[in-house]
Structure of 4-hydroxythreonine-4-phosphate dehydrogenase:
Amino acid sequence: MSVILPARRPGARPAIAITTGEPAGIGPEISIRAAWAMRERVNCVLLGDAAFLAMTAHAIDPDIRVSALSLMAVRNGGLPHFGPDRLAVIDIPLAAHVVPGKLDSENGRAVLATLDASIEGVKAGWFEAVATAPLQKSTINDAGVAFSGHTEYFADRTGTAQVVMMLAGEPQGIPGLAQLRVALATTHLALKDVPAALTIAGLGTTLDIIDRDLKSKFGIAAPRILVTGLNPHAGENGYLGREEIDVIAPALEAARARGIDARGPYPADTLFQPKYLQDADCVLAMYHDQGLPVLKYATFGRGINVTLGLPLIRTSVDHGTALDLAARGLGHAECGSMEQAISAALDMANASRGN
């Protein structure tokens, strides 16, 4: 599946959509701060309530200029190319007044509308990629929309049968390792449901997606993928579970037959060591809390979330809405992860172009 990329205008900064997330959380603040910090490299177009974002931007720094655009005007005339002296906002109005730290389900559908507009914008050629600020799943569900997460929503809206969640970042305390990447075989799933969700075919598709996207979106010529087992000690030859024998190992053998360098299954409690990770471009973990605690411990505040397998580039921060920080007012949230998400989205767009 090829990535949708618009033609770049000579001399124009690449345009990336920034969905500003849950308005009562830190998403609006980190989106504005990161977009303003990176304005010389990237035309970061914010998607959200223009009046609320302009007010927030002024409170952060009176020098931040915000120009509001209507979605209909962009649909009819395309995306204007402002200079780096201002931030463009495609206005997607909220339904209710925002109280920092306090969720309001009336705003749930507006948050979803920013995601829809970002996908529309990539397809229409307005944006090269999307970087998403954190949202609150409960608010959207309370608004009457079944929603399990960004990853699943982007897959559904783009008609993608299977996607892969991967987190990445520059790890601290792992000598010689410049980048740690951890992908997940299952995502937002109850632990009791994980074993039944693992199949030879599903793992095979997951490995295909990881291998293809590491090549096409990250420019890695021959990706090396290390795969964890599901059970303690990778099942200990069947004494602690047979998923490694019956599902994971056959999926790896079939992937290798297709030319994918996939190794394992390895015990998850010993895999995350420098001597193994230095020989890996990505680790595939079987479930959410098997791989992500390690990655977030090593990279938190600098890590990103990437959705592999989509016909577009989508990155995100590695943290949540932090309602408690938002309730304390502006100035308490760090925007480092959002800056990394924007930078990674640009790098992936460049790699997809062969730059």
